[in-house]
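It is worth pausing here to work through a concrete case rather than discussing structure prediction in the abstract. The textbook approach is simple: state the sequence, then state the predicted structure, then interpret. We follow exactly that order.
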Amino acid sequence: MDYEYYMGFALEQARKAFDLGEFPVGCVIVQGKKVIASGARQGTSQEKAFFNEIDHAEIRALKQLEKNTIKFDPEKSILFCTMEPCLMCFGAIILSKIKKIVYAFEDPMGGGTKCDLKKLPPLYKRCSIEIVSGVSRQKSLDLFYDFFHKEGNLYWKNSYLEEYTFSQKKEINSG
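Step two, the predicted structure:
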């Protein structure tokens, strides 16, 4: 399977979020070489009274599965995301029984995919999940860099994630 091809669809979702002033995370779920669900981050633009920490791209894509006319088969599905899923999203993905996650840019501040599933309660131990990282990383990094440079943006402003994103961009530009 061409991971970069499908990550392109997730990047389109991230770009939509970015264009709406949202944190640029996009997600698609692929089954049998077909995108069956997609989602873009919401709840982070400056037009909101507070930052919504529930409407993550992965959660929105998983919710879209219930409206799908194609029968969802988690064994044959892969979730593509422009940023490493957080702990909340990782838990939801595990519970959905999807066996593979492919992401672009690591989340050093809130990424959940490095959790030791063996140390979690039984509900989360019952499945193994394959993680593939770094697919189209540069394109995703560029979106996050642009987001953090956007005038008036306050979401995760002055955070470790912003600092890390800037350092990664600087490292690539100087290399």
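Step three, interpretation. The first helix runs from residue 3 to 19. Strands lie at 26-31, 34-40, 77-83, 100-105, 130-132.
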